[in-house]
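#lab-general

N.A. 3:47 PM
ok so I finally got the sequence cleaned up, no stray characters, all 80 residues accounted for. can someone with queue access submit it? mine expired

B.Y. 3:52 PM
send it over

N.A. 3:53 PM
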Amino acid sequence: MSVGTRTGTLLKTISPARRLDIAASYEALTQACVATGDDPAKAELLSDSPNHLWSLGSRSCALAIVHPDVDEAWALIKGA
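B.Y. 4:20 PM
back already:
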């Protein structure tokens, strides 16, 4: 997983279970970036509770929310 320096530091200090959750979130983020043309290589995790909020870097100023439940994710999008 290739992430920004803050997220890389975070991953070294958290529990293995939480690290797996973030890795799965990053995988979903990577798949979404393929579709949108964004580069997830320097993504920074801004928040992981209750949803994973990622910054895709200062160049694009894009944010991505990765939610583990598809139905709840659609509800968040529709409610935005």
